[in-house]
Every structure is written in C-alpha cells, then in structure tokens.
C-alpha cells in the first residue's frame, strides 16, 4: 500500500522469545503491496493554519467546555486520475486532547488537557458532484456517515445516500475548524497558557 503524508510516522515492535518453548525449524515472511501510477495530493487553504488569537479567561465557562473559534477552511485533494482513497487523520498532539475523538491542543504546565479542535464537514464535492463523507474505524471493512473528521480513523467519499467509497479525481471539502477549551475549573489559568494543536492528513489508497 502506498501512502503520501506530510509528517513523519514511526512504528516500533517488540519480538519476545519464550524460554524452553519448542521452535519450528523455519518460518515465512510475506511482503505484499501495490504500485499505482495514480497519486493524490491533499492541500488545505491558508496553509492549514488557524489562529484563534487571545482568549480571555473571563470568557471561559467554569463548568462547561467553551468554543473559542470557528474558522472556515477548504480541503482539496487532486489526483492524477479517478482514485479510491481515504484520509487518515493523525493527532500530532496525541494524549493531550480533552476528547477521545478530536485533536489535542497541548497541556498546561500542570499537565492539564487544554481542550481540542475538530474539523466539521460542511459539504463535499467529488468531481463537481455533491458527495457524502464516510468514516471507517476498521480499516475500511465498514463505513458510516460522518459530519466531522475524527482522529485515528479513515475518512472517505461516497455517492449521496450510499456508504461505499468511490474513485475521485478532484475532491473539495468545505470545513469549519472549531476550537474548544476545557472547563476553566479544570485548568490552571493564573498565567498565560499557549495552545497549539496539530494534525496530519495522510492519504491512504483503498
């Protein structure tokens, strides 16, 4: 499987050998993949940057989460030819989100989770035609309709009313990036607190 992505991604593994176990005299290693002539390039308007600016502590609710910014952004994917693909959204601030589904904004100096941001999906056009956004949490085995991009899952495109990924050459998705701060009584806010969320949208060919 060929992937195109913006940020480095690493994986590690541990192989353990149990003592006294009888081992087979041989084992197989199989490598499979696909070389495709078609490539897709994702891009975000405004360089993918959202600047919420200064947020006053007095504007934060002490008892509930507060939305402090909503900024429109356009996601486009341009392919050499119609290609079935999905976007794997990776949280570059993993472990800091105040939500299990959305992207982290970092931690305070006391290791408190500041909040999260989420790209809400407003509309999608696949090769000029209205389309739906669908999500898979089982690596493409099944899909459900979605209205936001969620971390650690695949987001793809389907014909309106269906749940089957389609091949697309040019995709345009209108997003609204919503930034949310955790309840003020869960944060230490005696000094300035900077927050900086980051996500990588990785192409995965289906």
Automatic annotation (TrEMBL):
Top-level taxon of the source organism: Bacteria
UniProt cross-references to Pfam families, sorted A to Z: DUF1120
Signal peptide: 1-23
Keywords: Signal
Protein name (Swiss-Prot/TrEMBL): DUF1120 domain-containing protein
């Amino acid at each position: 499987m060929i992937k195109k992505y913006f940020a480095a991604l690493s994986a590690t593994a541990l192989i353990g050998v149990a003592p006294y176990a009888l081992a087979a005299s041989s084992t197989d290693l199989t490598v499979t993949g696909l070389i495709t002539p078609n490539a897709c390039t994702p891009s975000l308007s405004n360089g993918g940057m959202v600047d919420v600016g200064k947020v006053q502590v007095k504007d934060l609710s002490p008892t509930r989460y507060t939305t402090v910014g909503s900024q429109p952004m356009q996601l486009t994917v341009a392919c050499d030819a119609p290609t079935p693909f999905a976007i794997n959204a990776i949280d570059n601030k993993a472990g800091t989100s105040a939500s299990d589904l959305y992207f982290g904004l970092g931690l305070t100096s006391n290791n408190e989770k500041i909040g999260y941001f989420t790209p809400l999906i407003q509309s999608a056009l696949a090769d000029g035609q209205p389309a739906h956004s669908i999500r898979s949490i089982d690596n493409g085995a099944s899909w459900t309709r979605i209205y936001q991009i969620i971390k650690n899952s695949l987001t793809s495109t389907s014909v309106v009313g269906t749940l089957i990924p389609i091949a697309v050459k040019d995709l345009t998705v209108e997003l609204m990036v919503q930034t949310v701060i955790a309840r003020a009584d869960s944060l230490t806010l005696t000094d300035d607190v900077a927050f900086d969320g980051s996500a990588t949208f990785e192409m995965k060919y289906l």
